[in-house]
Amino acid sequence: MSAVQLYLASGSPRRQELLTQLGYQFERVVVDVEECHQPSETAEQYVQRLSRDKAAAGVKEINATKTAAATTPVLGADTIVVVDETILEKPKDFNDAQRMLKLLSGRQHQVMTSVTVATAEREETQLVVTDVWFKTLSENEIEKYWQSGEPQDKAGSYGIQGLGGKFITRIDGSYYAVMGLPLVETDVMVQNFLSL
């Protein structure tokens, strides 16, 4: 296997799949970052802070456990769903998912994905905002969707790349950012780090 070009500070299978799609040799690094919105933060500030915190935690972990890894960049990312300035994260249970999906039903919302690439010396963060429109959902559709297991680990209680895709009437922005990792922006940022 080729040398590691990048570390991924995320356990998301979707982010791993998308980073593989970009063709990078990477290793996952496990980080534990508390995802707690501060009352003074906008949604944009919050999601960007989380991606920076994850990347920074990854840099700290890599520098503590790997030799000569200080120059290998770490990628941290976070995705939130926002409707009426309300942040929708991963659902706690069915009632929480039901509340979120009812909020999204029949209207537009925003998906914000922030990506940070960092080393011990430098850091770059980019925010990608995509507008998403949902069809009107019935109680039965919401319940069946929850029973599929798909919403349980996803911001806003849905995944665009899975069964949740059938709820979406249109998007304006990056499909891959809604999945969790905007490909174009991520590739440009990683290349900026690797070309130094």
Summarize the structure.
This is dTTP/UTP pyrophosphatase. The protein is of the alpha/beta class and 196 residues long. It has a single domain, classed as Maf protein.
Question: Main attributes?
Answer:
seven-stranded mixed β-sheet; 6 helices; alpha/beta; UTP diphosphatase activity; 196 residues; 24% strand; ITPase-like_fam
Your description of this structure?
This is dTTP/UTP pyrophosphatase. By secondary structure, the chain is an alpha/beta fold. It has one domain: Alpha-Beta Complex (Maf protein), CATH 3.90.950.10. It has 6 helices and 7 strands. The chain is elongated, with a radius of gyration of 17 Å. The model has no long low-confidence stretch (mean pLDDT 93).
Compute the CA-based radius of gyration.
Answer: 17 Å
Biggest sheet record = 7 strands, mixed
Unreliable stretches covering 5 or more consecutive residues: none
Oligomer: single chain
The figure for the number of domains is: 1
| Order of H and E elements | EHEHEEHEEHEHH
Report mean pLDDT, rounded to a whole number: 93
Helix % is 25-40%
Fill in the CATH topology. Answer: Maf protein
Structural class: alpha/beta
Strand content: 15-25%
